């Protein structure tokens, strides 16, 4: 009897993997953590890791101005950011927290983590209810969080976060990959 249960569980597990792979191949987005529109955050913020390659036009950080405002070639990890709101947005300022690449001492004490660095990005567009972009972090081991620093609306009003944690979300652990046929 146990072998039939085991076979049934394995069949369901394989079907789940095949179904998930089918969604990834067709480009259907996998649910990412969403920071919803609350009193603390003026809109829904979703972040997922963005694979390198393809026809991605990357927005570079303010600290990396020597590369120009956009880059077509990725030199390190990046994230895709989507922000939806009920008021038309013209510009978003975002900061991305990441752990730098390279050797480092990892703290052994509970509750402590490795040192993080940050880069600041600005996404500008015609006023819209939805803003999205691909942010190129560059040389990093991992991206830990994306913070909405400010939102400038079409009417000129500006929302500012009062703290770094006010409107912040980690990237989804899923990454879409390009299907090869």
Q: What does this protein look like?
A:
It is a single chain. The chain is mainly β and 181 residues long. The protein folds into two domains: 1-29; 31-169, Immunoglobulin-like, CATH 2.60.40. The chain has one helix and nine strands. The protein has one helix at residues 2-26, and strands spanning 34-35, 44-50, 58-60, 70-71, 78-100, 117-136, 140-153, 158-160, 168-169. Strands 1, 2, 3, 4, 5, 6, 7, 8 and 9 form a nine-stranded mixed beta sheet that branches. The longest helix is centred in the N-terminal third of the chain and has 25 residues, at 2-26. It is globular, with a radius of gyration of 19 Å. The termini are far apart. The model is unreliable at 1-32 (pLDDT under 50).
Give the topology.
Layout: H1 2-26, E1 34-35, E2 44-50, E3 58-60, E4 70-71, E5 78-100, E6 117-136, E7 140-153, E8 158-160, E9 168-169
Parallel strand pairs: 3-6
Antiparallel strand pairs: 1-2, 2-5, 3-4, 5-6, 5-7, 7-8, 7-9
Question: Ranges with pLDDT <50 over ≥5 residues?
Answer: 1-32
What is the average of the pLDDT values? 74
CATH architecture of the largest domain: Sandwich
- CATH class annotation of the largest domain: Mainly Beta
Rounded to the nearest angstrom, the radius of gyration is: 19 Å
Structural class: mainly beta
Tally of helical segments: 1
Distance between the termini: 41 Å
Counting structural domains, the number is: 2
Beta-strand level of the residues, as a percent range? 35-45%
Q: CATH topology of the largest domain, anyone?
A: Immunoglobulin-like
């Amino acid at each position: 009897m146990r072998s039939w249960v085991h076979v049934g569980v394995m069949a369901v597990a394989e079907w789940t993997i095949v179904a998930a792979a089918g969604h990834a191949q067709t480009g259907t987005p996998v649910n990412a953590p969403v920071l919803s529109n609350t009193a603390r955050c003026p809109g829904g913020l979703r972040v997922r890791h963005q694979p390198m390659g393809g026809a991605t036009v990357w927005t570079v950080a303010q600290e990396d101005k020597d590369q120009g405002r956009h880059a077509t070639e990725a030199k390190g990890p990046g994230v895709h950011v989507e922000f939806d709101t009920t008021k038309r947005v013209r510009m978003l300022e975002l900061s991305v927290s990441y752990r730098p690449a390279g050797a480092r001492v990892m703290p052994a004490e509970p509750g402590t983590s490795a040192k993080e660095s940050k880069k600041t990005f600005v996404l500008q567009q015609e006023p819209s209810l939805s803003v999205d972009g691909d942010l190129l972090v560059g040389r990093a081991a991992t991206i830990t969080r994306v913070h909405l620093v400010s939102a400038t609306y079409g009417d000129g009003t500006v929302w500012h976060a009062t703290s770094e944690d006010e409107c912040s979300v980690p990237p989804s652990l899923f990454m879409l990959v390009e299907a090869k046929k």
